[in-house]
């Protein structure tokens, strides 16, 4: 079965009790880009975005931001 990378923006905003707009402000990543990632509408994310999100939320483990799952499994999250 194929693998897919999931960006866990929704989980991060809930865990840190912030809005997408606040995450955008803290990380200097466009709100639209974060929204697309959160909704699964974006197929890619740049390393600089991952780094800025990690810095903004004081994350040291990349697995808090992205996850590799079996194709189709992402809808169960």
UniProtKB/TrEMBL annotation:
<dbReference type="Pfam" id="PF13443">
    <property type="entry name" value="HTH_26"/>
</dbReference>
<keyword id="KW-0238">DNA-binding</keyword>
<protein>
    <submittedName>
        <fullName>DNA-binding Xre family transcriptional regulator</fullName>
    </submittedName>
</protein>
<dbReference type="InterPro" id="IPR010982">
    <property type="entry name" value="Lambda_DNA-bd_dom_sf"/>
</dbReference>
<dbReference type="GO" id="GO:0003677">
    <property type="term" value="F:DNA binding"/>
</dbReference>
<feature type="domain" description="HTH cro/C1-type">
    <location>
        <begin position="14"/>
        <end position="65"/>
    </location>
</feature>
<dbReference type="InterPro" id="IPR001387">
    <property type="entry name" value="Cro/C1-type_HTH"/>
</dbReference>
């Amino acid at each position: 079965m194929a693998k897919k990378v999931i960006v866990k923006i929704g989980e991060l905003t809930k865990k840190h009790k912030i809005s997408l707009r606040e995450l955008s402000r803290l990380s200097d990543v466009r709100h639209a880009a974060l929204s697309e990632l959160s909704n699964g509408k974006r197929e890619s994310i740049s390393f600089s975005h991952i780094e800025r999100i990690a810095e903004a939320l004081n994350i040291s483990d990349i697995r808090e931001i992205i996850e590799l799952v079996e194709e189709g499994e992402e809808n169960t999250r």
